[in-house]
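Table S4 entry, Large ribosomal subunit protein uL13.
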Amino acid sequence: MMELRIDASGKILGRLATEVAKLLMGKSSAAFDYSKPGEMRVVVTHTDKIRVTGKKPWQKLYRHHTGFHGGLKETRYVDLFAKDSRQVLEKAVAGMLPKNRLRVVRMKHLVMHRGEDK
């Protein structure tokens, strides 16, 4: 399995996420096939230096429902980024991958670090 390292410092969240999603799917490979996971392992470093533009840090919301009445939970980008910057990139990339069984396999090929490699 090939490994590609990406330095996320100063990059825009959405543009970085599309680049990572394409690599995880294997679209850069000549042997690309929708029914197979990509042959690429993507290592993203410096996720704590990812940027977003405009007022998104304060206005962007991440929502999920617990399944109980009134159980809609909202988290702002600023709060999630302060807690763990890797979750922001993980949610962005997962949202750009096809919603099928291979999504879990492809997401396992994504490795993220807040700072330098460990």
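Strands lie at 2-7, 40-45, 61-65, 72-76, 110-112.
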